[in-house]
Amino acid sequence: MAAEVDETREHALPVRIVDEPETRVRRFTDVIGMLATVVGIAAVLLVGEFLIGTTEGLTQDISSISPFLQQLLVAPVNLFTAILAIVIPGIMIIDLLVRREPRRLVESLAAGVIGVILTLVAALALLNLATEELTASLTPRGFDQIQLPAYVAAISGLLTAAGRRSARRSLGMSWNIMWLGLAIAVIFGVVTIPAVLLTVLLGRLGGLALRYWLGSTADRAYGDTLVEGLRRAGFQPLSLIRADVEHDEDEYPELDAATDALARTRQGRVYALTTVEHHRLLVVAMDGDQQAAGFVSKLWSSLRLRGIDTRADVSLRQTAEATALVSHAARVAGVRTGRVLGMGQIRDTMLLVYQRPPATMPLSALDPAEISDTLLDAIWTEVGRAHGAGISHRHLDADTVLVGTDASEDEPTVWLTSWELGEAATSVIAQRIDVAQVLAMSAALVGPDRAVDSAFRSLGAEHVEQAAPVLQTVVLPPITRAAVKASPYDKVLEAVREEILERSPDAEVASVNITRFGWRAIMTIALGLIAAVVILAGFQTEKFIEAVQQANPGWMVAGFGWALLTFVGAALALAAFSPVHLPFSRVLLTQVAAAYVSVAVPAGVGPAALNLRLLTKRKVATPLAVATVALVQVSAVVVTVLGLLALTLASGSKGALSALPSTAVVVALAAVVLVIGAALLVPWVRTWALQRVMPMLRQTWPRLTQVLGQPWRLALGLAGNLLLTIGFVGAFQSSLLAFGYEMAIIDSAVLFFVSNAVGAAVPTPGGLGAVEIALTTGLTGAGVPYPIAVSATLVYRLLTYWLRIPLGYVAMKYLERTGEL
Q: 117 and 145 share a domain?
C-alpha cells in the first residue's frame, strides 16, 4: 500500500506525498557486469593458454625494473601485501560503521568469503584440468605450482559488494590502493599478470552475484527528495501522487484513465503533480539503475530491425534530454502531445515534467463500437503531422494514443504520448513501422476493412502500400500483439494485407525480411558452431592437409562443376512450373543468389523465399506464387524418392549399403508402415497430420492440375529437379574420388539424401553442422577411414556451400540493382 506523508518546509505549503519507495533494487547493470566478468575470466584463460609467450614477456619486462624499485621500497613485498590485506578491509569496515550501514558491512564481508571460495574452487580445477601452457602462465618464476592469491579475490569481492566505485571516495581510494599493491606484487615476481586478473575477476563475480541476489540500496529519489528535485526545477508541488501503483480511485481523484495508461507505457515512474497554482501536471522519474536495461532494449531493437538507427543516449541525462527533444519537436510540428515544461535531476533520478492532456482517456479504454471513422482519421492526422516533420514514434499502441472523453463528438481530439523510443530526423523504414503499428492497432479494434479505409483516406495509397510489407508481428508493441491475438477478427494482419491488395491490386504486400537476426537465429548459429566443434573434435589438421595435398585437383574441379549444375536444375524446375513466362537468365541468377541467402537462413528456405519474391515482382498473385513455390518443393521430394528407388533397382547387389539383409529392410519398412497406420487411428494424431498436410495440398493441387494439363511442363519440371539431385550427388562422388576412394553410386546417393534431410530438419544456416555430422557419420559407417571421411565431407561442403556464396552475393547485388528482387 502506498505511504502518504505530509511534508512541511520553511516558506512552503504542506505537500501531500503518496509514494512507494523501494529501499533495495536489483540493478540490471549488475547482470551486465556479471556477464562481462565471465567473459573477462574466459579471456584471461585463453590468453594464458595461447599467448603464454606474450604474458611471460610482459611479466619479465615489468620484473626487470625490480632491482631499482627494491631500492625505493625498503619494506619486503610480503609485508606490503600483508598491510594491503589489512588496510583496505579496515578502511571499508570503518567507513560502513560510521555511515551506520551494518547490513552492507555484513554483505561485503560475505562477498569477500565468496571470492575466497571461488578462488579455491578455481585453483583446484586448474590444478587438475589446466594444460601445461595455462599452468605456466599462472605460475611465477621460482614457484613450482599455480599461485592465486585468495586475499586479492576477498578484497575485490568486498569492494564490489560495498557499492559502486563512484558512490563514495573511500571506495575509489580502496580500489586504487589494491591495484597499486597488485602492481608491486607483479614487479617483485610473486604473482603473474594473468593470476592477478583472474583473482580480481573471481572476487568481482562473487560480489556482483551477491549484490544482485540481495539487491542494492536504491539511490533513487522518492518522497520529499523527489519534491526537492521538483523545486530545483522551478515547480512548487502541492501534491505528488504515484500513478504506476495500485490506488483506490475514489481516494485519489487526481488519477484518471489517461494517467494509468501513461504509467503503463512510460519508461519510468509516473506521478500526478498538482502545483500550488493548482496546475495539474505529469512527472516522469527516470532512474539510473534502470537506464542500462532501457539502453540494451533500444540497442537490441535497433540492431535487430533493418533501417533503425540507435540513439547515442548511453547515460541517464542523455536519455532524458533525447526524450524531451523528440517530444518538443513533435509539439512544434503541431502534434497534440504533452508539452515538456521542465527537467531536473536529484540523486540518481532525472525528472521530466509534462503538460497533462486535458480530459482524455486511452484508446484501449473505449468500446470498439464507440470508435468512429472520424476518430480513426484523427489518429492518422496526428501520425501524419509527425511524419511530415521527419519524426517517428516507434511505439504506437492503444495506450499511447489518447482521445477525448466523448469520442462521439464530430471532431474528437487525439493526443500521442510516450516518445521515449521516438526519433527526430528519422528513417523511412521507421515511419513505415509507425503506419504498420497503427494499422494493426485499429484493425484489431474495428476490423481490417475500416482500418484500411481510414488509412487510405488519410495517408493516400502510396504510404499504405509501402507499409504493407513491414506489417509483421515483430514490429508491433506488446499491447498490440496481444490485441491482435485476442481480436474477434481472424488473422488480422493477413486480412489487412488482403484489404490493401483489394484497393491496390498492383501493391506489393508480401512480407519483407526487416529483421537482421533474432534469438532463433542466434541459437541456430550457436548450435551450428557446437556441431562444427563436435565434428572437428577428432580432426587432425596434419592429416587433412596431407589428404588435400594428395587430392586429385581434376576431381575437385569436376565436383565444383557438378555443384554449379544444380543452379541450372533449380532454374529449370521453377521456369517449368511458373504460371507466367520468366526469362531463364533471371531465374538462373535467382538460384545463384539463393546461395548467398543460405548464409543466414536454414537449408531450403533461401531458394523458396527468393523464388516467391521473383514471382511476386512479376505481378503473380501471392497465393498463386506460394502455390507455385510449394509445387516446386513437392516435386523435388517426389524426384528424390523415385530416384532413390531407381538407383536401388539399377544397382542390384552392389554397394556397401546393399549388405543390409533384405529381410530386415522389409521388416523395418513394414513396422514403420504399421506404426504410422496405428498412429493415424488416434483422432488427435490424425487431426494434427491433416493440419500439416491439407494446407499444402490445398495450395498445390489447383496449380498441379494446371501443370498436368501441360505434360511438357511437368516433364521439364521433374527433369530440372532430377538434374538438381544429380548435381549434388555428382559433387559428393567427386569429393570422394578426389581422395582416391571410390563408392557405389547408390551409397553416395543414399548418404546425400540422408544428409540433405537432416540439413533441412535442423534450423541452422545452410544446415551448417548437421550436414557435416550426417555425412561424416555415414561415410565412416560405410567403411571409409575417418580422415578421408572428414576430408571428403569438408571438400564437398566447400564446393557446394562456401565457394558458391561469393557467386550468390554478386548475383544478389545485380538482381537488386535491376529491380528483380
A: yes
CA 736 to chain CA centroid, nearest Å: 39
DSSP 787: H
Residue-wise pLDDT tens digits, 622-660? 667 777 777 777 777 777 777 766 665 655 544 444 444
176-221 pLDDT per residue, tens? 888 877 877 777 777 788 888 899 999 999 988 988 888 776 677 8
Q: C-alpha 792: how far from its chain's center?
A: 35
Looking at the structure, tell me whether residues 351 and 202 fall in a common domain: no
- C-alpha 561/C-alpha 111 separation (Å) is 64
- Give yes or no for a contact between 539 and 786, defined as CB atoms under 8 angstroms apart: no
Q: Which of 478, 448, 479 is nearest to 464 (CA)?
A: 448
| DSSP secondary structure letter of residue 740 | T
Same domain? 344 vs 440: no
Per-residue cell: 350:
532525472
Per-residue pLDDT reduced to its tens digit, 797-820:
888 888 888 898 888 888 878 777
Same domain (yes/no): 209, 229: no
Last residue of a domain, one of 326, 355, 384: 355
Query: Edge to edge, what strands does the sheet with 349-355 contain?
Result: 3-7, 15-19, 237-242, 269-275, 280-287, 349-355, 340-346
Question: Using CA atoms, how far apart are residues 655 and 676, in angstroms rounded to an integer?
Answer: 30
Range of the domain at 208: 27-214
Q: 584: Cβ–Cβ under 8 A, 6 or more apart, which residues? A: 571, 575
| Cell matching residue 519 | 534469438
328 or 819: whose pLDDT is higher?
Answer: 328
* Lookup: cell for 590: 535467382
Which CA distances in Å does 68 have to 62, 178, 183? 11, 22, 15
597 and 732 together in one domain: yes
Distance between CA atoms of residues 35 and 171, nearest Å: 22
- Residues 8, 50 share a domain: no
The residues, ordered by sequence, that sit 6+ positions from 58 with a Cβ below 8 Å of its Cβ are: 193
Angstrom distance (rounded) from CA 187 to CA 77? 10
Q: Do the domain assignments include residue 433?
A: yes
Secondary structure of residue 575 in the 3-state scheme: helix
Residue of 609 and 434 predicted with greater confidence = 434
Asked whether residue 510 is assigned to any structural domain, the reply reads: no
Q: Total structural domains in the chain?
A: 4
Q: Quick one: 271 and 200 in the same domain?
A: no
End position of a domain, from candidates 355, 379, 402? 355
Choose among 770, 735, 722, 732: nearest CA to 752: 732
Residue 144: is its pLDDT beyond 80?
A: no
In a domain, 107, yes or no: yes
Structural contact between residues 85 and 203, judged by C-beta atoms closer than 8 angstroms: no
Q: How far is CA 280 from CA 2, 19, 236, 255, 263, in A?
A: 20, 17, 12, 10, 16
- The whole-model pTM stands at 0.57
Q: Are residues 373 and 349 in the same domain?
A: no
Would residue 513 count as lying in a domain?
Answer: no
DSSP code per residue over 379-408: HHHHHHHHHHTTEE-S---TTTEEEES-TT
Judge residue 227's burial from the number of C-beta atoms within 10 Å of its C-beta, 0-12 exposed, 13-18 middle, 19 or more buried: buried
